[in-house]
TrEMBL record:
Keywords: DNA-binding, Sigma factor, Transcription, Transcription regulation. It comes from the Bacteria. It holds the Pfam family Sigma70_r4. Belongs to the sigma-70 factor family. ECF subfamily. This is RNA polymerase, sigma-24 subunit, ECF subfamily. The keyword DNA-binding applies. Residues 11-77, 108-156 form the RNA polymerase sigma-70 region domain.
Length: 166
């Protein structure tokens, strides 16, 4: 497939900054982050017609896979020097997965209505009780419960659309 520079540039312009932030939070190496972002954009551009769901979540998952592949390549050594390596590698993958999940959840929360997002943030991130959330949001407790129920359903739908497994 010939390279469509405008499409690649558009994808990079629209998502490059957020991707770079994601990769930098995992690697702390600006040059590596730029390399991963560029490879991610090219890979996703090549797969674009086959992508179902959110392009951004696909970009993050692709960047995650590239970072893990790069880490594995860098860690290849003779077996006798790899003592403790599986645990360290698992720790790196867990950290990258945690970052990816946080980014995808933030993106999904932004797609909820403000009312639903406010209730979920109050209950699940601030750890308010229903009564505390009602007082904070200045709405009845029954409304907090109802909004929480429908917000979770909407969030599941959004995550399904993004291709994120719960």
């Amino acid at each position: 497939m010939p390279l469509d520079e405008d499409a690649v540039e558009s994808l990079y312009r629209e998502h490059g900054t957020a991707l770079r932030r994601f990769v930098l939070s995992a690697s702390r190496d600006p040059q590596l982050a730029e390399d991963v972002v560029q490879e991610t954009v090219l890979r996703v551009w090549q797969q674009a017609p086959d992508i179902n769901g959110s392009i951004r979540s696909y970009l993050y998952r692709t960047a995650r896979n590239i970072m893990i592949d790069n880490y594995r390549r860098a860690q290849r050594r003779p077996a006798e020097t790899l003592e403790g390596e599986p645990a360290r590698q698992a720790g790196v993958m867990e950290r990258v997965d945690g970052l990816l999940n946080r980014v995808l959840i933030e993106e999904a929360l932004l797609r909820l209505s403000k009312e639903h997002r406010d209730v979920l943030v109050a209950l699940h991130y601030r750890r308010f009780t229903v009564n505390e959330a009602a007082a904070q949001l200045n709405i009845p407790t029954g409304t907090v419960k109802s909004r929480a129920y429908y917000a979770v359903r909407a969030l599941r739908t959004i995550l399904d659309e993004m291709g994120v497994e719960p």
